[in-house]
UniProtKB/TrEMBL annotation:
It comes from Ridgeia piscesae (Tubeworm). This is Uncharacterized protein. Residues 236-274, 297-338 are annotated as: Disordered. One of its GO terms (biological process) is proteolysis. Signal peptide: none annotated.
Length: 501
């Protein structure tokens, strides 16, 4: 009897050790071993193995969303052409997009256009998974929804993805009228990594405009003998010729000089710090909404308030790739309106440069983007890497690889880019939405970007925190009206889109 008990205990103890280590080895084989010395010792450290298995166990709970994914893919494969046109080519990476029409819209009606960018850790996802979401948004907002695929890692890196989103917006601006869309009413909506790409795409256009637009003379701070010693922007800082500044290293000099971000030399805001400039207001809940908003004191943030059909798509709708790239007017900050060709982009550091755009086209393109809505987005890559490290998944996550490694985290972090913009830079309205129970991307990510935008002087920025809402719920609940957070998230999205149309 005793011998049998010892045998059972031995088997159980062996299983407790062997199974977690087997899963850890399998995960590293699938996603890659750490890129450092002693990579095997790092990957198989007991603490990391334990954390990694906890994260893998958490992934099992995603099975509850499988039915939604299957329903969405089924709708994508069976939807009539009057509701969905698939696989329209766009951009420079042979990517494709789908376009969804709202129920009951005539072919002669011009609708605003929503571009939805899905997430997936910059390495996964497919537009077919989000067909139900897109058609529900199209019906609820009475808009045309465009959902693009983009060059996820390892096919592309983050600059390729940003380029794809800019290409998609450019394609919509050029071709929306052919499909019954209003090319001057474009909204970007992104979830998770998709929210990061949406904000980066807008910042790409904003900074491209800044470096090719004469700015008013800078006020030279006391003790500084020349403008070159104060905050300014230069293409070399982002042109890939040298490693980007780390979180605690801000360079200074004639080329690529930048100023230290507000709040200290480390270049990062404390997510727990309270600037005193915003408060949580629970009393502002609206009908059918269980959300509460963050109201910025002195900030003029704006608020407002099925899957088949028979509408025919516009005649002549085709999937041809546009002949050229780019169009673009948020505020005209230039003293000229010439058509001089622009040089390479500022934010995109490596890979192919965006196709040239004239100043007028760039202004037109920026003016057409009326709103950016971020759902549970990643806005500070360095902070998120630390969060992933605490979960034990930083080495198998594709984020670091897609960003060209830690030395480039800052240059692809919206928070860091916004911190280094000139004060009161003109930008489209940005509405950030996050779930309070998000354990994949912490809510501090949204709070930090909102605070940074407010410090920059962006008056049209707003933040909403949804109670008891998780990372996937905030997106997938939009696929089904019976889901718990469907109405609250949809109302926030509708409010953001309609208040800025």
């Amino acid at each position: 009897m005793l011998k049998r008990m010892v045998k059972v205990v031995t088997v159980m103890a062996t299983s407790v050790i062997a199974i977690p280590y087997a899963l850890a080895i399998l995960a590293n084989l699938l996603y890659g071993w750490p890129r450092c010395e002693n990579k095997y010792a790092r990957a198989l450290h007991p603490k990391k193995v334990f954390l990694l298995n906890c994260a893998l166990l958490d992934q099992l709970f995603k099975v509850k969303y499988l039915k939604l994914v299957l329903r969405s893919r089924y709708f994508h494969s069976t939807a009539p052409r009057s509701r969905l046109i698939k696989d329209i080519s766009y951009g420079t990476h042979d990517s494709t997009l789908d376009m969804y029409w709202p129920r009951g819209k005539g072919t002669d009606d011009r609708c605003p256009v929503v571009v939805f960018v899905y997430g997936g850790t910059w390495a996964s996802g497919d537009k077919a998974m989000y067909a139900l979401l897109c058609t529900h948004v199209a019906d609820a907002l009475q808009v045309i929804v465009c959902c693009p695929n983009y060059a996820t890692y390892p096919k592309g890196y983050v600059d390729d993805m940003v380029q794809d989103i800019v290409d998609c917006v450019t394609w919509v601006h050029k071709n929306a009228s052919l499909y019954g869309g209003d090319e001057e009413e474009i909204t970007l909506i992104g979830h998770s990594a998709g929210a990061h790409l949406c904000v980066m795409a807008v910042l790409e256009l904003v900074m491209k405009r800044l470096i090719h637009t004469p700015l008013p003379p800078l006020a030279v701070p006391s003790g500084v003998t020349s403008i070159s010693e104060s905050i300014r922007f230069d293409e070399q800082h982002f042109d890939g010729s040298s490693a980007g500044p780390s979180s605690g290293d801000v360079s200074n000099g004639e080329n690529g000089a930048t100023g230290a971000p507000p709040g200290g030399g480390e270049g990062r805001l404390d997510p727990a710090a309270n600037s005193g400039s915003f408060i949580f207001v629970e009393g502002q809940m609206q009908k059918n909404t269980d959300s509460f908003c963050v109201v910025e004191e002195g900030i003029g943030g704006r608020t407002s308030g099925s899957s088949d059909g028979s509408d025919e798509a516009p005649d002549g709708a085709t999937g041809s790739k546009p002949a050229g790239q780019g169009e673009g007017d948020i505020a005209d900050e230039s003293g000229s309106d010439g058509d001089a060709e622009l040089a390479e982009p500022l934010v995109v550091a490596k890979g192919e440069r965006l196709l040239s755009q004239s100043q007028r086209e760039l202004k037109d393109l920026l003016n057409s983007v009326k709103t950016v809505v971020g759902l549970a987005g990643v806005y500070h890559i360095g902070d998120h890497y630390e969060f992933e490290s605490a979960r034990g998944v930083e080495d198998i996550s594709s984020m670091s690889r897609a960003m060209y490694g830690p030395e480039n985290f800052d240059r692809f972090s919206p928070v860091y880019v916004v911190q280094n913009l000139p004060k009161n830079t003109s930008m489209p309205p940005i509405h950030l939405i996050h779930g309070a129970d998000d354990h994949v991307v912490p809510v501090s990510s949204t709070i930090k970007l909102h605070r940074t935008l407010s410090e920059l002087g962006c008056k049209d920025t707003r933040m909403t925190i949804l109670p008891e809402c998780g990372h996937i719920d905030i997106c997938f609940d939009l696929m089904d009206e019976s889901r718990r957070h469907h109405h609250s998230v949809m109302q926030e999205v509708m409010q953001a889109v309609q208040s800025n149309s």
